[in-house]
Amino acid sequence: MENVTITVNGAPRRAGAAVNTTVLEWLRAEGLTGCKEGCAEGECGACAVLVARDDGRGNTRLDSVNACLLTLAALDGGEIVTSEGLGSPQHLHPAQREMAVRGGSQCGYCTPGFVVSMAAEYYRADREAGQHGAPNGFDIHALSGNLCRCTGYRPIQDAAHALGTPEDGDPLASRRSQPAPAVATTHVKAADGEFHRPATLRETLDLLAAHPHAKVLAGGTDWNVDVNLRHARADVVVAVDHLPELRRFEVTDDAVLLGAGLSLSELERRLGGRVPLLAAWFPQFASRLIRNSATLGGNLGTASPIGDSPPVLLALDASVLLVGPDGGREVALSEYFTGYRQTVRQAGELIAAVRVSRPLAPLTAFHKIAKRRFDDISSVAVGYALDVQGGVVTHARIGLGGVAATPLRAHEAEAALEGQPWTEATVRRAARILGRTGTPLSDHRASAAYRAAMLEQSLLKFWFDSSEVTA
Amino acid sequence: MSLHERPAHAPVGEAIPHESAALHVTGHALYTDDLGVRLAGLLHAWPVQSPHAHARVTGLDTMPALDVQGVVRVLSAADVPGVNDAGVKGDEPLFPSEVMYHGHPVCWVLGDSEDAARLGAAAVKVTFEPLQSLITVREAIDARAFQGAQSTLRRGDVAVGFAQAAHTFEGEFDIGGQEHFYLETHAALAHVDEAGQVFIHSSTQHPSETQEITAHVLGLPSSAVTVQCLRMGGGFGGKEMQPHGYAAIAALGATLTGRPVRLRLNRTLDLTLTGKRHPFHAVWKAGFDAEGRFTALQVTLTSDGGWSLDLSEPVMARALCHLDNAYFIPHVEAHGRIAHTNKTSQTAFRGFGGPQGMLVVEDILGRVAPLLGLDAHELRARNFYRPGEATPYGQSVRHAERLHDLWAQLLERSDFHTRRAEVAAFNAAHPHRKRGLSVTPVKFGIAFNFTAYNQAGALVHVYKDGSVLINHGGTEMGQGLHTKMIQVAATALGVPLSSVRLAPTRTDKVPNTSATAASSGADLNGGAVKDACDQIRARLSEVAAGTLGVHPDDVRFEAGHVFPIGHPERGMDFAALVHDAYHRRTPLWAAGFYRTPGLHWDRVAMQGEPFKYFSYGASVSEVEVDGFTGAYRVRRADLLHDVGDSLSPLIDLGQVEGGFLQGAGWLTLEELRWDESSGEGRGRLQTRSASTYKLPSFSELPDVFNVALLERATETGVVYGSKAVGEPPLMLAISVREALREACAAFGPGGRSTLLGSPATPEAVYWALDLARTGAEVAADD
């Protein structure tokens, strides 16, 4: 049974897709074993591949993504490039050559993934000398989702910083000026279930009505972790991230509307710093490889208490636009979470977008407490949005993650700030209240005592950081 | 020429990339699990795991698995034709009747697909009678649950030492373990050749032992089993003992079904099944004279060995032999014992107990320096070994002066004293951020403590066209051993690097090999490769001497050219000479052998000369700590390390840097957490995935990273004057932890001892600095 077509390294391949098969499994079964499994949950990047996507201007962008988190059927009609497609031992790609001669590979197992992530940045159309403090503009955060256990990263960094610009005739550079493949409407019936990528929202909602337990798939960065590590299986999967209703992006004087099906990278690019709190937050959300697939809809749909988007969106007073068989509705995010991984969203409803009202509070920060600075899950996350007028706090919103069964607004600490002078005394009083908010647990990430201490310390840090800036 | 001397224009010492670099970067390099897709009829294996930390298996019903579509067979104890054990101590049943840790495999299911095997494993019905379990080292100590030999390293009389002490301190210290997290998880692929030969591809650092254990499980002689290792995607010690059982399962499945069997652990299985670095617990008492020199050290080390003995005894021996690190301690009494807990069987991991031993003494010095009124770097330097002094186990510290020299060079290169002042100024100006700057030394003994392992073999072929194929007993796990061996062979035969090809490690080419471990891969296999090449070259010299009309001793081999000394113009091509030699019926291949001379070790008395030599190094690290959260970054690290005369500088630099970052991971970030509660999940590893067990990423790369190899460092008696490099640099990372301690202390008034957990995660750092801020006095000076 051959039911999807995917272009790999320039040549189309037919695949008999099972509903729960990932691109990584398929590539390896095809003999393209340069794609490696290191963790099967999007943490190590050893399976990174380039995906050809529309860049919004009719041309193609090459995004690096984790093949282990990409459902094969979801790639129907798509186009990818693997390490084997970048170059060969006789004709190395510039990223491969720099990695090889500088000692960027030791055991070599993570190497193809690094090369792919590096190539994505190499082909970034708006890369310019001097960006990100690098002579060649290479953003080293492009490699934050790739782990190496051998080298210590220095030679890999040197390789990244040694890259020039693509030469004339570079096939992938030329590929960028052609249109990306159109996203196919897909219906796959396989032995293990059915995969649908319906053409319209109407069809999607009908499918969800007919299959209330269908798995709704956007980027797949959460669901496929369950598939790989916990052997979760879905009978019916419905892909939604291509629907125009979920891909809206609007900035008006009153609000910013963020489509739930847009990848976080896409949102980051399109916002371009217009919401400073989100601009500060994006780089701290997982890794570039994940942000190239993950969506706001997914992060709010799974409703994990340690999801990173709720604390910032709560601070921004965001609301969620839901769409269902009976039309749409808008729910304040502070009303959205009802219990551990539970929300007001009904079966058959989709998250269409997130609305952030404007004007934005001017004083904002996102604090993520984690063991590792890049690509880690929060022990505690705090989002702040304050307005201070004439030395008095006129508006305070504090969103919390990791301290209860759901993301929380810190209402009491907000109340302790609002109407009070923006002084250290006020902050210390509010910080003590914030430190008693929620019911943090002790687990493998952090102790309850540390989580509570971090809430309190976080507000103090916010105060001292902002007064350093304003001083 | 003696072993350490280099000819002119030698390929050894050239900074060349890894021999497989072009294959690595293009994805063409093959690893064990890349091979199965190329075989027809492949079966996949999946384990049925215990949900208890300790339990008796009271019933096993495998029939339901056979009802799952695609399941072919379930392997259990009754299928074992030989010995049902996968260890070397007889305490690791392959199919246990008593499960000893959470996740312990009871049996294995074979399926047409991994999916089928996995579903089959879920269908197997096992009944258990739960038994009492011990999870932490402290629980085991309280229960007096130890395994293996207990050993004591003693010199002098600590009572005398303490009587001479002006200051005495006591303390306790818990050191966390570490997961290897090689990017390639364990994998084996077995099939049965013609005539019943079992052929196994295994991701193993110890192919000969994988072969021996598979043979005894199958009830076959070793000659009927061949193990090959193309390369590993990282090993770090984790594939020294651990691969054997998986190879045996795959081989057993292949012999019983007649089909090739693939066994590959996914990351969760690898984390929950395989051994890790030993956590240690230390109780100590240390005496110092008025100038801060050690007078005595009394220590009891308890390692957490996990459920089976594995390599815990030699790991403890190395820990005891590295308690001194770089310091002369006149009176020493150190006890070592191994806790028996219901966890994975802890095993070899880069440094092999050395890091834990060293960390104990470095922690002591870091803690007590403020109480002695000394800067920690001054306290350390004051205690260095001086030429002529010996270790507590009686080995003279050769080249002790090299450590002093290296230390002085590093302080100079890193601008240490100026930066100390800058750090102090920064700290005075910043109430919420503090910096710390520290320097620590490394002295690490090279050779296997187990003397018999210090031997190696090689097989070198020269073909009629002058091309060279080498085979040796060492395995490639990314450390660049094969690259170095190609350089050694090219140097010894006087041919260009391009003439030498290296064939994968196989037990039917070079038998009875030692594990590629203990940093000794290049020393041992390099000796053996050179021996084989020297034999061939001696025969070729005879042939050339006849042709050139000179004495054989006066024939030079250089870059593929053979000529009378002083007359390169009268020479000939290596290939022409080889052609000539073949026609004169000269054997063009040779088996090489090497044994490390001069080693002896009494493991009961803990005395002797267990090491061929010591590797030295030192590092300076500067960190900045956020006082609100305990989060930190390494601003700069300067490393200076002694690799003798490097065989391959690009490779060695990579080993030094990679070791440092892996050490920094162990000491600051990587945290293994087991469920220690009395609930249902007791004994379950909670950090069982890459999302919960965090290893260093790009964010841990120091902002400034200066790494250098000590120059003019020829080591006599070792192949081409080089020294081992695999393990010692890991311990350079101790300076990061000590810098964090200094930064934490800077939040307080100073002059007090700062305790820091290990790993020094942001949380641990936060509690340390919070204590410094709020001012509790911790260690008491009596």
TrEMBL record, chain A:
Describe the location of the 2Fe-2S ferredoxin-type domain by residue ranges.
2-86
Q: Write down the InterPro entries for this protein, in alphabetical order.
A: 2Fe-2S-bd, 2Fe-2S-bd_dom_sf, 2Fe-2S_ferredoxin-like_sf, 2Fe-2S_ferredoxin-type, 2Fe2S_fd_BS, Beta-grasp_dom_sf, CO_DH_flav_C, CO_DH_flav_C_dom_sf
Highest taxon in the source lineage: Bacteria
* Domain FAD-binding PCMH-type residue range list: 188-361
Q: Which UniProt keywords apply?
A: FAD, Flavoprotein, Iron, Metal-binding, Oxidoreductase
A Pfam family annotated for this UniProt entry: FAD_binding_5
Name the chain's protein. Xanthine dehydrogenase, N-terminal subunit
The protein's organism comes out as Deinococcus metalli
From the broadest rank down, the organism's phylogenetic lineage runs:
Bacteria, Thermotogati, Deinococcota, Deinococci, Deinococcales
Automatic annotation (TrEMBL), chain B:
Query: Which GO MF terms are attached to this record?
Result: 2 iron, 2 sulfur cluster binding; iron ion binding; molybdenum ion binding; xanthine dehydrogenase activity
Q: What is this protein called?
A: Dehydrogenase
Q: The organism's lineage?
A: Bacteria, Thermotogati, Deinococcota, Deinococci, Deinococcales
Name the species this protein comes from.
Deinococcus metalli
EC numbers on record: 1.17.1.4
- Using the record's annotation, list all stretches that form the Aldehyde oxidase/xanthine dehydrogenase a/b hammerhead domain: 26-132
The question of whether Phosphoprotein is a record keyword is answered with no
- Pfam families given in the database record: Ald_Xan_dh_C (PF01315), MoCoBD_1 (PF02738), MoCoBD_2 (PF20256)
| Gene3D superfamilies for this protein | Aldehyde oxidase/xanthine dehydrogenase, a/b hammerhead (3.90.1170.50), Aldehyde oxidase/xanthine dehydrogenase, molybdopterin binding domain (3.30.365.10)
